[in-house]
Amino acid sequence: MTAYMDHKNLANEVIDTARAQEIADGVHRVLERVSTAESKAGREAGSVKLLAATKTRDVGEIMAAIDAGVRMIGENRPQEVTAKAEGLLGQCAQRGLTLGAAADDTAAGNAEGEHIPFHLIGQLQSNKIGKVLPVVDTIESVDSVELAEKISRRAVARDITVGVLLEVNESGEASKSGCDPAHAIRIAQKIGTLDGLELQGLMTIGAHVDDEATIRKCFAHLRRTRDLILESKTPGTGHCLELSMGMTGDMELAIAEGSTIVRVGTAIFGERAFI
Predict the structure, then answer these.
(1) Angle 212-213-218 from CA coordinates, rounded to 5°
(2) Under 8 Å CB-to-CB from 260, ≥6 apart: which residues?
(3) What is the number of other CB atoms lying within 10 angstroms of the CB of residue 211?
(4) What does the pLDDT read at residue 7?
(5) Above 80 in pLDDT, residue 111?
(6) 274 lies in a domain?
(7) How far is the C-alpha of 226 from the C-alpha of 57, rounded, in Å?
(8) Residue 109 has what pLDDT?
């Protein structure tokens, strides 16, 4: 178990008014940043989706973000998905919302309401696949054909389709996960052939440097890679549209280079008390 989970009850559903307002203010500031960046880049309003990165945040904090306008959430660790799932599902249901893969379970009952996509944005070990599939509808951290094949087998066994994004290590930093950019097109094309998966796009983490040109170069390369995958018209790649790139510190640069999903935690929730 992750150490901080011994010190914080991630299933907690109740936060005070001041904390809820703090989170709401953070959401509104980030949405304004996204809107301004879209306009500056000459992009259509609403073309970039805000994903709230909810690592170490409890159910009450996450619901405060959803109440303030967040319409996509992402967890880094499978353990947190498991710890928060029941509370999030219940709280969303009370608001007439569906969450993650649970929307498929309620479809037969003609459940209505806005859907909140639930993504896994952190590394996934193969022995945790079964824990996240009942909850998340998209896994952004698929970095190899081998991992994709394991997810595919689990998805087929459950008779479901799981959205995946191929994670690419555009910066080349050893501390970051993701496949080699030189192999990304081949891996994406292979993923597109796997049953039970839908290749929805690509993901990367921006270079950890102060040079804007270097950061933008990585984002621009991911966009060109996505475009080449689409242009190849390889079966199974037609929905490879998303570019999940940009976080609190570099979202404007990512949006300028074509990001469709920005993953933001600190600017919404504040600095984390735990790593």
Answers:
(1) 100
(2) 47, 48, 49, 201, 241, 242, 243, 244
(3) 9
(4) 82
(5) no
(6) no
(7) 32
(8) 43
